[in-house]
Structure formats: structure tokens, C-alpha cells
Specification:
- The structure holds two protein chains of two kinds.
- By secondary structure, chain A is mainly α.
- Chain A has a single domain (about 1-300), classed as ABC transporter involved in vitamin B12 uptake, BtuC, CATH 1.10.3470.
- Chain A contains twelve helices and four strands.
- In chain A, a hairpin with a 2-residue loop joins β2 and β3 (about 135-140).
- Chain B is built from 13 helices and three strands; from the N terminus they run ααααβββααααααααα.
- Chain B has a three-stranded antiparallel β-sheet, with helices on one face.
- In chain B, β2 and β3 (about 125) form a beta hairpin.
- Chain B is globular and about 65 Å long.
- Classes of the chains: A mainly alpha, B mainly alpha.
- The interface of A and B includes residues 92, 101, 102, 263 and 269 of A.
Chain lengths: ~300, ~300
Amino acid sequence: MIDFVQNTVDGMMFGSSYALLAIGFTIIFGVMRRINLSFGATIMLGAYIGTWLHVHHQVSVWIVALTTLASTVLVGIYVERLCFHAIRRSAVLASMVSSFVIWMQLEEAAIHLLPERTYAFPALLAAGSFELGPFLFRAEQTSMLILAMIIVGVLHVLLYRTRFGLALRAVSENSLAAAYMGINAAWVTLCAFALVSLMGGVAGYAILSTDAQITPFFGLWATFKGLIAMMLGGMGSLPGAILGGLLLGVVEAHALWYLGNEYKDLSAYLLLFGMLVLRPGGLMGQRILSREALAFRRV
Amino acid sequence: MDDYVITVLSNIGMISFIALSAYLLLLTGEISFGQQAYFGLSAYAAGAATAMFQLPIWAGILVGACVAGIIAMVVGALTLQLSGLYFSVATLAFAEMARLILLIVEIQVEVDGEMVGPEGANGFHGIRWMFERDISLTEFMLLIYGLLALTVIFLLLVERSRLGSVLRMLGSDDLLAEMQGLNTVRYRILAVGAAGVIAGVGGALYAHFTTYVEPQFFNVMLGVHALAYGLIGGLGTAFGPLIGVAIDVGFLEAIRFIQGYRMIVFGGLVAILLIFMPRGILDEERVHRLKAVFSRRNHARA
């Protein structure tokens, strides 16, 4: 029983990093109705630039953190201009494939920067652990869960209490109507992309400093964990992204403990496939639009 | 031709099957991230048929294609109500499940005093049909291109027929298609199954060409590449995906001298191409115009 609870706690801690990645996907999808496959690679290149400074110029941890965030935002803007702004809105597939080839491009750029397989990643906080009753908590993972909650709080205020948030929600609801109201949709989209990249940079920094290392597989990992967590929670829903991330973390932790390492990812994909077949809208999303609803909407 | 050129050409041929498979689904408006699963499952099934049960290769290809087609239809039936990103992610989840299961499966039988069969993460060794019968690389390449030509002819015939219009109609507006009295469920399962069979033929050939398959080869990168081929080459005709494969494999081989910077150059070029041609080089409009040019020339001659 204690094992079960401890696993659940561990899973939720780890799941908070999935949740952070899922939030990025959900906002981009909400605003653009398109998917950005290079999200993970964007964060990875940003973190690689930060690590490069650390490895070659021995700068302080704070500068590494700031460089990581700034370069993630710049790379994010590059992706937005090339793969989303330049391609017309209806060409969903072209944007997706474009963001995929740019993923490959960013990954190769990152590997050129630091060609070895792993590098140590500097952490802001020292690692440690504390006990609460019979349960063990790792300090850096606990701080990640708290960080995820803070980011969600800030995002909530930004989206529901500011003019920018109103504009962003208007664009995601109906970009044409938003344009008629005098909202510059292209500008809002660019800002949303920069915001999400910033958030992705924070998430990436937190995850990498928990792992204490960075490898070229980070881009793929981040993209897929974020995508799975978003789909589990329901596309376009902020609380859903968090729930989805936590659920994914908990399921993976239990599968790892009870079934073994080779079943960890398998259980995650089984959960996702089952969810999509039985309840396509995810935990929090609206039920998937039925054909009747689609027909009515068109009338 | 030396072995290197033959190997590159054979790879282009085998990868073309999975590109055509993704293309067939793109026609019906669905983006699949999971066609590599059928390629991989068929490679295992076909390899098992010839290496473990000593069947001839045509039976191996048939078994592989059938296994892939049937599984694809089951997945298609389960995901019937999904569309757009939901369908893409569901196919991705299925493909990763299939790959991870193949990483665990270990079934081995004794053939001529040796253990053969899938061996989990170590892959499936000893699919030696080609060597046991002294088939040269060139002969096998001809087999690959023969089957590829049959597949392309089949797809071109489908596109000229009523079925082709129905599939494209599902792609542009499935609600409207249903209002025309079309059984959209049946056509969609048919398309998904046929796409599975096409990917399966490629996988069966792949297993026998390399004599060795491992689950790691059928990862999601293969599936996304397959999609990208159709989109680079163009969605207007079945030749589109073939052009996409030739550009990718051929171009990457051609720019070997900038080793290490290939993806930076290639990725940038493709991204720019997609800005100007969002439905690929040979998109519907250009194919139509080309056809018009050709038919006018024929009229002039007559």
C-alpha cells in the first residue's frame, strides 16, 4: 500500500513536467488549429545554447537559465515565421510537415553545437530529498510541481484577465471575426508563440535540471510526452493538460514498478489509444463534435 | 551497377511503398502517423513465413500483406469516428504500441539446428531466403520495382475510376459525401485496409532484402517521413510520393559533401518549398494542367 501511494506521488511529480509540455501544445493548438511538431526541438536547441555557454565559457547558472529562455523564444519565433505565418491558414498538413523538417534542422544544429552524447546540465537548486511520514519526496521534483502550478496560475490570469488574453481567445474562437473586431491576428499569434516558447523554455530548464543532463533525444521525448498528455487531457483545455500530464506520469510510474521498464511506454500508448477510441475528447475536453453537431454548425 | 547504387535504388523502391500507403490515406483526408506499423508487422510476418515455416517468398509477401491489411482494417474500424489530429495521434499510439510489443515478443523455432524467430529487442535475424536461393541484389531489385510498378498502376487505375473520385470526395468533405448516399464507413475501412496492404508489401520486401529486421527501424520517424514524401512530391497523383522519396533519398545522397549539415540545408529547402507549394510539387492543379497540355498535343497530332 505504501508502495502504491509512493508510486502515485512519484508519478505525479514526474507528470508535472509532462503537464508543462502539454500546456504549450494546447495553447498553440487553441490559437492556430495546427500542430507544432518542432516544439520539443525548439526547447532542446534553446537548452543546448545555454549548455554550450556553460561548457565553453563557464558562465554562471543564472546566465545559463536566462540564455536558455531567450534562445528558446528566438527559435520559437523563427519556427512561427517559417512554418506557420508564411503558410496559409488552411494548409494544416503543410504546416505540420514543415514544422517536422524544421525539427530535424534544429536537432542537427543542436548536435553541431555540442557533438557528444550527454552533457551535464547545471541546476539552479541543489538536489535533495525530504520525508513526510513514510513517503519520500525529492526536492527538485516537488519544486517542479509547484512551478507547474505557478505557471498555470499566471497563464490563467493572462488569458482571462488581460486584453491580450481576450484577443488571444478571440483569435482561437474565430480568427475572421477577431480580425473584423480590429484584432491583429498575426501579431497575437506571434505573441502567443513567443509566450509558449518562453513557457516551454521554463519547463525544459526545470526538467533538464532535474535530470541533471541533456541528450539529443530530448526533443523527441518532449514533443511526444507533451502531445500524449495533451490528448489525454483534452485538446485546447488548460486544466485538461495538467490532468493529462499527471495521469500519464502516474500510469507510467505504476507500470514501471509493477510490470518493468519495457512496459512503461507501452502502457502510456495503450492508455492513449484506449482513451481516443472510447472517449476521444479526453478527460476535460468537450466530447468530440459529432457529425450532427458538425452539420448543424455548417447550417 | 555496383552494389552501393543497387542498395540505394532498392531502398528508394521499398520506402516508396510506405510513402504510397500514406498518400492513399492523405487522399481520403486523413493524416496517419502510423503507417510504419504495417510496414513493420508485415516484415515480421513475412520473415516468419519464409524463415520459420519455409514458405516460398510469394507466400511470405502474401502473408505479410494480409496481416498488415487485416490489422489496418481493425484499427480503422476502431478509429472510425476520429478525424484530424485525433486520428493522427491514435494511429501514432497504435504504431508505437506495435513497435513496443515487437520489442518484447520472443518466439523462436528450430530450423536446421538453428534457432530462428523474433528475439525481442535483438530483432529478427536469419531471414535468408535470398541467400539460400542465390538471388542476386539486381534480381531482387527488379522484384521490388516490379511490385512497385504494379502498385502504382493499381493506384492510377483507382484514381481514374469512380472509387478515386469517391476517395477524394471523402477527403474534401465527408459530410457531403455521406449526403450523396455514399457508405462512408465502408469506403474509409477499404482505404485504410488498402493502405495497410501497400505498406505491408514494402515491409515484406524489406525483411528479405536486409535479412534482418528490428523494431527500432519502424519508429515514428519512418511514418512522418512517409507523410512528408507525399507532401513534398505532391498530392495530385500517385507519382508525387515517388518524386518525394527520390528527392529525399537522392538529394541527401547527392549532398554528402556537406556531411553533417545535410538536414540543415534540406530542412530549410523543404520548408521554403512548402511555403510556395503547400500541396507539393505535383499538386492537383498542376497535374490537371499537365494533362490538358498532353491531351491538346494528342489532338493536334490526330
